[in-house]
C-alpha cells in the first residue's frame, strides 16, 4: 500500500460553500481532500459545486464514515497529522510540515471533536490573530493559509 500524500482533512464540515472552496484549494495545490462524516449538507449540494466551480471534478475526494474509519483506511502517520484549533500551543508558522502532511480542521461552529484531539495534543496548531475581537477565521480561508504555509519552500 502506498503511503497517503498530503491532504486537507475536514472533520464533520457543516457549510457546503466552505467545503467547495477547500476543494478548489486542493486542486490548485495538488492535495487530496479528505472529508469525515457526518456532513451538514449533501455532498451533491449545488453549493459545493458552486464554490468549487468547474474545478470540483478535479478534486481528489476521499470520504470516511467517521474519524476511526479515516485513521484505518487513510492510515496517516501520527506525525503527519497537524490539528488546527484556536487553543493550539504551536503557531502554524513554527510547525514542521512533513511531505505527507494532513491538515485537520473541525466543524465551523465547534472545532475538532474530543476524540480527534485526545492523545494528539502535541499536534495542536493555531493561526495567530492580531485582533482580540475574533476567535477564528473562516474555515476555507484558514485551510488555504495553512496549506500554503505547509508548502512553503516547495512552491
Quick take:
With 155 residues, this protein is an alpha/beta fold. It has a single domain, classed as Alpha/beta knot (3-Layer(aba) Sandwich), CATH 3.40.1280.
What does this structure look like?
This protein has helices at 16-29, 46-52, 67-73, 114-117, 139-150; strands at 7-11, 32-36, 60-64, 81-84, 90-91, 102-105, 124-126. The chain is built from five helices and seven strands, in the order βαβαβαβββαβα. The protein has one domain: 3-Layer(aba) Sandwich (Alpha/beta knot), CATH 3.40.1280.10. It has a seven-stranded parallel beta sheet.
CATH class: Alpha Beta
Specify the CATH homologous superfamily: SPOUT methyltransferase, trefoil knot domain
Q: Could you tell me the number of beta strands?
A: 7
Strand content: 15-25%
Helix percentage: 25-40%
Computed structural class: alpha/beta
If classified by CATH, what would the architecture be?
Answer: 3-Layer(aba) Sandwich
Q: Report the C-alpha radius of gyration, rounded.
A: 14 Å
Order of helices and strands: EHEHEHEEEHEH
Write the layout of secondary structure elements.
Blueprint: E1 7-11, H1 16-29, E2 32-36, H2 46-52, E3 60-64, H3 67-73, E4 81-84, E5 90-91, E6 102-105, H4 114-117, E7 124-126, H5 139-150
Parallel strand pairs: 1-2, 1-6, 2-3, 4-6, 4-7, 5-7
Keywords:
155 residues; Alpha/beta knot; seven-stranded parallel sheet; 5 helices; 7 strands; 18% strand; globular
